[in-house]
Design a protein that fits this description.
Layout lengths: L11 E4 L9 H16 L3 E4 L11 H14 L22 H13 L3 E4 L4 H4 L32 E4 L6 E6 L3 E6 L7 E4 L7 H11 L4 E5 L3 H14 L5 E5 L19 H6 L4 H4 L3
Parallel strand pairs: 1-2, 8-9
Antiparallel strand pairs: 3-4, 4-7, 5-6
Bound molecules: glutamic acid.
The site of glutamic acid (GLU) has 8 residues, from loops.
Length: 280
């Protein structure tokens, strides 16, 4: 692409929590960074509810997530509770958009149906955070034809360009590079239960919602390589990326929802003030 010809788009950032539990300090710090970067650039912040995993997402966590983010000091001008030009902002209500993208990938020869029942198939609805990265798929089903009856009831993988180095500059972590087929393999884009994978839904939404910078934790850098390949295959403009350092506990472990004492609710109940928790 000729970068000299690229016209700067107005800054649009997003907060993309998954309502599978109460938000904790680790999430909130990332969201605070996203919020500040949007404000500093006079941009727009979007709240997207990543609720694809119907078995794990719960309505009470959606309500808590909005409440806790507001208490922490985040504010957004587009989202499930305020609507906006790219509504709906809940992934579970955007299935037709994902079906259309999947069909485009399938028609263009980027995908193949996969009959393997592996952990990565089971986990595909949620973002692979630290320790959740899948092993490189050995390619067992690569030769299968994409011309199948009722494609939406099968699992599908994206065929990565083996040996190609995918590179991007990260606003926080610097130069990034991974080799397709070595550092990550063919990954799930569609599940036979009729849902897109996190990778497909996230890439499509970031593009459709005209996000110009994705701010998230450093453990999702490998997902970014996959999402860049999806965006290219779909002909979408790619956003910039800013993968911030992860907040860790006293043992150096990434904070997870199981660290209940550090949930925003618990911190609020303990009398902590948001402004004392904002430090980057
Ligand atoms: N909902 C995803 C998560 O909780 C978002 C990941 C992303 O920002 O792309 O990890």
């Amino acid at each position: 692409m000729d970068h000299a010809m690229t016209i700067a788009r107005p800054y649009r950032g997003r907060l993309a929590p998954s309502p599978t539990g109460y938000l904790h300090l680790g999430h909130a710090r990332t969201f605070w960074t996203a919020q500040q970067r949007a404000v500093e650039r006079g941009g727009t912040l979007i709240l997207r509810n990543d609720d694809l995993d119907r078995a794990r997402c719960r309505p009470e966590f959606v309500a808590a997530m909005l409440e806790d983010l507001r208490w922490f000091g985040c504010s957004w001008s587009e989202g499930p509770d305020v609507s906006g030009p790219h509504a709906p902002y809940e992934q579970s209500a955007r299935l037709p958009i994902y079906v259309a993208a999947f069909e485009r990938l399938r028609a263009a020869g980027f995908a193949y149906p996969c009959g393997c029942s592996r952990q990565d198939v089971l986990r595909a609805l949620t973002a692979p955070h630290q320790g959740d990265e899948e092993p490189v798929y050995p390619g067992t089903c690569r030769g299968r034809s994409a011309a199948v009856a009722s494609p939406l009831t099968q699992n599908w993988r994206f065929r990565v360009p083996d040996g190609e180095a995918v590179e991007f500059h990260d606003g926080s972590a610097g130069a990034q590079r991974a080799v397709a087929g070595e550092d990550f393999g063919d990954f799930l884009i569609w599940r036979k239960d009729g849902f897109p994978s996190y990778q497909l839904a996230c890439a499509v939404d970031d593009a459709e919602m005209e996000i110009t910078e994705v701010v998230r934790g450093a453990d999702l850098i490998t997902s970014t390589f996959r999402q860049l390949l999806l965006l290219r295959a779909l002909g979408f403009t790619t956003p910039e990326y800013f993968h911030g350092p992860l907040v860790t506990d006293e043992h150096g472990m990434r904070l997870a929802k199981r660290h209940d004492a550090l949930s925003l609710r618990a911190l609020q109940a303990a009398g902590r003030r948001p402004e004392d928790l904002h430090a980057r």
